[in-house]
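queue> pop job 88
queue> type: inverse folding (structure -> sequence)
queue> payload:
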């Protein structure tokens, strides 16, 4: 079987579509394992998921993680990682990896970068040295890193954005995708294209049509979760989904709040990633079946219950809120480790519940129950 130019090393199997929504159940096969979808990918920007070891990631159920091209290019360098045997060997992770192209990070530099048709000149956020990313260069770097799934170089525009610029950016992103596709020659890696177009329905649809005109193993939706209201994000997803192939995985980039994971899955998204759960954890906030809990607050100083009595993670099975609060307040590393373990396990359990609900055609009911319990508005 040939799946967008990638031989049997990469394949998406659509198992079931929900009767009452666009949600789907699937399996994503890569050279480093099988991923149940919909899935949430913990973010390991610099070849590590902050505060987590590889075995701990496996314990919480992670089947795939994300690392970032820009950060690994800046430090320690893709050639060093290549000499180490690639990213899997370098970080001792034998399951699947996706690498972001670095587009979001480069375009976040604002005054430190200059965009041309050829690519983007930017200054390192570490030492100010100048670098130049072209689509071909980004593919070269990602092929050196050796991830299972790699992303095309795109321009991620801010919200709000003038339509004229959103159009120019979307068209340039597609031209860059064609160059990425031509440069990509590693059949063990799956190259995904990225749909852009800001918050404009017609541009999103045009971008989806252009992007899918190139036969790729999967497609991503970029440029959302950048400050727009969630209602607009959900509308954009709904516009795009009918134009994405049913037999290819769909990846919503940079989204990871519990409500957005459910809403995205309902609309047909298969893959998600976000730094939210690990960043929140380091700031002393945890996700629970009853909503967010700021465990650093004084009210938990004498609370000897687990973070979440419905959670089976290492932190909840062994430690109290009072102890974890003490660690956070004392700035002990273990505190951040325990809150991170919990938040990532919470989201893996949520994705498991979402998949079970899709299997039973009950995802809309699941959303209603979940939102009512946590006080969300549907």
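queue> result:
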């Amino acid at each position: 079987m040939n799946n967008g130019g990638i031989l049997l090393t990469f394949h998406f199997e659509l198992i079931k579509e929900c009767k009452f929504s666009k949600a789907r159940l699937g399996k994503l096969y890569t050279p480093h394992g099988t991923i149940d979808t919909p899935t949430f990918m913990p973010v390991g920007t610099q070849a590590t998921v902050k505060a987590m070891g590889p075995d701990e990631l496996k314990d919480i159920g992670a089947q795939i993680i994300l690392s970032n091209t820009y950060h690994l290019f800046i430090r320690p360098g893709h050639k060093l990682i290549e000499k180490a045997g690639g990213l899997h060997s370098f970080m001792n992770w034998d399951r699947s990896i996706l690498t972001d192209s670095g587009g979001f990070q480069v375009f976040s530099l604002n005054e430190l970068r200059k965009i041309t048709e050829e690519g983007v000149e930017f200054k390192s956020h570490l030492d100010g040295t100048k670098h130049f990313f072209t689509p071909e260069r980004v593919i070269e770097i990602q092929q050196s890193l050796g991830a299972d799934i790699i992303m095309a170089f795109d321009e991620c525009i801010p919200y709000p954005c003038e339509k004229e610029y959103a159009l120019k950016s979307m068209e340039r992103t597609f031209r860059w995708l064609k160059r990425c596709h031509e440069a990509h020659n590693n059949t063990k890696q799956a190259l995904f294209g990225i749909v852009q177009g800001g918050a404009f329905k017609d541009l999103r649809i045009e971008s989806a049509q252009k992007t899918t005109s190139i036969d790729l193993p999967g497609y991503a939706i970029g440029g959302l979760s950048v400050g727009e209201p969630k209602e607009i994000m959900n509308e954009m997803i709904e516009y795009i989904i009918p134009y994405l192939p049913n037999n290819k995985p769909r990846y919503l980039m940079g989204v990871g709040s519990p409500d957005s994971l459910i809403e995205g899955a309902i609309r047909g998204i298969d893959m998600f990633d976000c730094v939210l759960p690990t960043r929140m954890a380091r700031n002393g906030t945890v996700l629970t079946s009853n909503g967010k809990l700021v465990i650093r607050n004084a009210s938990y100083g004498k609370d000897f219950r687990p973070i979440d009595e419905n959670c089976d993670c290492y932190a909840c099975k062994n430690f109290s809120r009072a102890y974890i609060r003490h660690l956070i307040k004392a700035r002990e590393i273990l505190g951040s480790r325990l809150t991170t373990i919990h938040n990532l396990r919470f989201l893996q359990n949520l994705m498991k519940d979402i998949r079970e609900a899709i299997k039973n055609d009950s995802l809309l009911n699941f959303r209603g129950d979940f939102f009512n319990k946590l006080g969300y508005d549907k």
